[in-house]
Each structure stands twice: as C-alpha cells, then as structure tokens.
Design goal:
Layout lengths: L2 H15 L8 H10 L6 H8 L3 H11 L13 H8 L1 H20 L1 H20 L5 H9 L3 H9 L1 H14 L3 H9 L3 H11 L4 H8 L11 H17 L14 H7 L3 H29 L2
Helix pairs in contact: 1-11, 2-6, 3-5, 4-6, 4-16, 5-6, 6-7, 6-8, 7-8, 7-14, 7-16, 8-13, 9-10, 9-12, 10-11, 12-13, 13-14, 14-15
C-alpha cells in the first residue's frame, strides 16, 4: 500500500468518526423526504421553508441575487421552487446553513465562493447548459471541503498552511502532500453525504480535474474555469495568492475566442459590483 493510499484511507476513516461534521439542517432533511413524494407541490414545500423567517429572507435574497442571474424578480418561496426547481432550492437551503460558519471563519472564502457561483452561471447560460442555476449553486459550494478541514481538523489545517508557506505552493498542493487528498474530494464526499444531485457532487469533486469526472466533465470544467477567473480578478480569497493552472481538457470543452472572453469579463465585472451589495445585505440579515 502506498503512502498516499494509506493517508486517504486514514483520513476517510477520520471523517466518518467526526461527530460534528456538518449535516443537513432539519428543514433540509425534511425537504429531502418531501421531494421524493411525486404528489408533493411547490406550495407545500414553500410552506415548510416559510416557517423559518430568517431562512426565507436569506433564500429570497439569494435567488434574486446576481450570482443566480434569474431574469425576473422572485417574490415568494413557492414561486422560486416552480421557477428554479427542487434541487436548486434544496441546495440553497443547505448553503444558507453553512454561510454563517463561512462568514465567521473566512469572509474572503465566502466572497470567493459567491464570485465563482456568479461566473459559473454566466458560463452555463452561454453554453446553454440545462439548469444553469444548479451550476451556480455548485460554484457556491465548490470549496466546502476547505471549511471541513479548517473546522474539523484544525491541527492539519495549520500544518497545511505552514507547508504552503514554507514551500511556496498552493493550499491544494499542501493538502495533497499532507492528507493524500484535496479539498475538492473532501467536499464531494460531504455533498454526497448530503444526498445532493449527482451533477453537484461531480462538479465539486472534480473542479480541479474536470476530465476525471465520469459523467459531468463539462459542468466540472465550468466550475474549474470560473474558479480561475475569480482568482484572476481578485474577488474574495481562495486561501492563497495562486491562480490555479488551467486544465487543457477543460479549456477545450469551454473554449472561447477573445471577443467572447472579453464579453464574459465585462458581464462578470458588472455582476460582481452588484454582488458586493448582496454580501452587505446578507451580513445585515445574519447580524454578521
């Protein structure tokens, strides 16, 4: 058995043993059960969510924000469900539950994640991807593995930071060196545990290696390129100063000419300005 294989097995076992690993909030667990019922209506699901006023407020802010990019104003949770679908709403509910922890632990990473969600939505719509809002939510949670490492393995997290600083390498490279696996794979394990759609699981798991995705390489490529774009423009912080290398296979899947790339950057810049206002509003709602 290789050292990396041993580390992976050891780390997977440690993850299973962590009692405080982030889980679905009770309301999301209830939604999971409801959406399996073919007779459940959007109004019934909306009624469950609307019992939590803070969650409702956050959710409506999120679905009307620039990173979702829906063309019309959504005024009720039930309308949001009809327009965006159960999977997107469920993922946003889960995401809202980790936002507070992300804001408290790393504002820069939270803003980076919002930026990647925004860029992912732009690229998904330009590529006529089915359910582009779902790709936006994948961008939103693509770095959730970093939160797991920081919150649940603080000793390893400090060692990762030290290795990255001492060797002048990225956080991801330091993760692989110490743990034998990176935050993308860790995040994918968590998203799978949350029973979120396979498209989201693979987009998170393979956002640094899109061509390794067995079923969704194009979606993973969108998250991959969006991560690079947001790093390059300097919105938020991914934890280190490096811009990840562009995967050749991913670029071939979403390749665009200079003109389209300029158009994307102009659209992204406008939406990031709006996103700054959104982050301020969310902080007010959550009391951050």
């Amino acid at each position: 058995m290789t050292t990396d294989t041993y580390r992976k097995r050891e780390f997977r076992q440690r993850l299973r043993e962590i009692k405080s690993l982030p889980t679905l909030p009770p309301i999301a667990a209830k939604l999971n059960a409801m959406v399996e019922d073919e007779e459940v209506t959007a109004a019934q699901v909306g009624a469950v969510i609307e019992k939590d006023q803070v969650l409702t407020s956050k959710l409506l802010k999120m679905v009307n924000s620039s990173f979702i990019g829906f063309p019309q104003r959504i005024g009720t949770v039930s309308n949001a469900i009809v327009l965006l679908g159960f999977d997107v709403i469920k993922t946003l509910v889960v995401t809202s539950s980790i936002f507070d922890a992300m804001q408290e632990s790393d504002i820069g990473l939270w803003e980076h994640s919002l930026g990647v969600a925004t860029a992912s939505g732009i690229l998904a719509r330009r590529r006529a991807i089915k359910k582009p809002e779902e790709i936006s939510t994948a961008g939103l949670i693509h770095d959730i593995g970093k939160i797991v490492i920081r919150a649940e393995l603080p000793h390893e997290y400090r060692r990762i930071e030290a290795i990255a600083s001492e060797q002048g390498i990225s956080i991801r490279e330091a993760e692989l060196e110490l743990l034998g696996m990176g935050h993308a794979e860790i995040g994918g394990m968590l998203v799978k545990q949350w029973l979120l759609p396979e498209r989201l699981i693979q987009s998170v798991s393979f956002h640094h290696a899109p061509e390794s995705s067995p079923d969704c390489p194009e979606l993973a490529a969108i998250i991959h390129f969006s991560d690079i774009l947001i790093r390059a423009v300097g919105f938020g912080s991914g934890g280190d100063p490096w811009v990840p290398p562009l995967d050749h296979g991913a670029w071939e899947r979403i390749k665009m000419g200079r003109r389209e790339l300029r158009e994307v950057l102009v659209e992204l810049d406008d939406l990031l300005v709006e996103l700054q206002d959104f982050t301020l509003e969310i902080r007010k709602i959550s009391g951050a």
